[in-house]
Design brief:
Number of strands: 10
CATH class of the largest domain: Alpha Beta
Number of helices: 16
Mean pLDDT: 86
CATH architecture of the largest domain: 3-Layer(aba) Sandwich
Helix content: 40-55%
Distance between the termini: 114 Å
CATH superfamily of the largest domain: Periplasmic binding protein-like II
Strand order of the largest sheet: 2-1-3-10-4
Strand content: 5-15%
């Protein structure tokens, strides 16, 4: 028993010696506290060399909700063809789908009718001749131009090449067939004035629209007032060479076919208007690059169309999507608006109680709109 006790005392003494030897010096409670503090609070120099502490991973933001699809309707000015092809191509390429729009395109019965339909809320969007839409607004219709697609009109003095009519002055002593009551006929006076020609030196005859082309081909008249993208194409299809004197090139560059919308929609749904304009301009830009495919899109969506003729029409219309001096699709030079307004006031009895800026807006033309050449 004594021997066992002695052994325990010796073992305890050895443990104390080993503890003191390993620690170098026994620490008081105060020193232990200071040591702990030094470990917990490293110096600035030490902190700069230490590896950064792991941070909590950032929370991943929730994915954006899918864009709500909105149904809208576009009413054309007339039957679907080359002058409207950019819209069908935009639809075929999915540009409207990309901006959350389910677009229905329907044929129209004339620019004035389409403008009135949009003004009364019968369609969200319309495609109409600029002067026609402006006339409806001048009479109180709540319709505004938001993007001229054909920045100048396609009106033309059309003649067979063998007649030698290459300028307005060549019309002196000739017979010209016109359609009564149309804007191009009324503006014919402006053509004469712009080119210094006495109207009384030209024989002007009214004719039924259905007989217009036939009267020229049969030699009953020397020229007709018509559309370069329509009647002129028909005449060429029959194998004749044609001279077109575009109104825009002979002093009468009025605004052509344009996108229009109701005032209330501009106020209540500006985002939808902006999305529609952007997608439409993309479609027309794509049509410039691939007119054959754009013509096919018209045929695919309106089976009554003839692709070859539509393509010929479109090739003419693509000459009109940018007015001289225009910077981008849908954005007409200010002087063209002023010229259009002045011509309407002078020759069509248009009221001048509102400034021209009241008839259109450029707020929906995107900053990245396709550029003009």
């Amino acid at each position: 028993m004594i021997r066992r006790t002695t052994r325990i005392i010796i073992y305890g003494f050895l443990v104390v010696i080993l503890f003191v030897g390993c620690s170098g010096q026994a620490q008081t409670p105060t020193e232990l506290a200071q040591t702990t503090q030094n470990v917990q609070e490293p110096t600035q120099a030490q902190a700069s060399t230490e590896a950064p502490k792991p941070t909590v991973a950032p929370t991943i933001a929730p994915t954006e909700e899918p864009m709500e699809v909105v149904d809208v309707k576009l009413t054309l000015n007339f039957l679907a063809g080359g002058p409207q092809a950019g819209f069908m191509y935009a639809k075929a390429l999915g540009y409207y789908d990309d901006v959350g729009l389910n677009v229905t395109i329907e044929e129209g019965q004339g620019s004035a009718t389409t403008a009135q339909l949009v003004a009364t809320g019968g369609a969200q969007f319309g495609f109409a001749d600029g002067p026609s839409a402006m006339t409806v607004r001048s009479k109180g219709g709540a319709v505004k131009i938001i993007a001229p697609i054909l920045q100048t009109n396609g009106f033309a003095v059309i003649s067979l090449a063998d007649k030698g009519i290459e300028s307005v002055k060549d019309l002196v002593g000739k017979t010209v067939a016109v359609q009564p009551g149309t804007a191009q006929t009324t503006l014919f006076d402006a053509v004469f004035e712009a080119n210094g020609v006495d109207k009384n030196q030209v024989n002007i005859t009214n004719i039924d629209p259905a007989a217009l082309v036939g009267s020229l081909l049969e030699g009953r008249v020397d020229a007709i007032l018509a559309g370069a993208d329509f009647q002129s194409v028909q005449i060429r299809d029959r194998g004749f060479e044609v001279n077109d004197l575009f109104y825009r090139d002979i002093g009468v560059p009025t605004i052509g076919l344009s996108l229009i919308v109701n005032d209330q929609m501009i106020k209540d749904q500006p985002d939808i208007v902006a999305r529609f304009v952007e997608a439409s301009l993309k479609g027309w830009d794509a049509a410039r690059k691939n007119p054959d495919a754009a013509a096919q899109a018209v045929v695919d969506q309106f089976i009554s169309g003839n692709k070859e003729q539509i393509l010929k029409q479109l090739n003419v219309d693509l000459m009109l999507v940018c007015a001289p001096g225009a910077e981008a699709l849908g954005k007409v030079p200010t002087k063209n608006w002023e010229t259009t307004y002045d011509l309407l006031v002078k020759y069509l009895g248009f009221p001048n109680d509102l400034p021209v800026e009241d008839y259109y807006t450029t707020e929906f033309i995107p900053a990245n709109a396709p550029t003009c050449p």
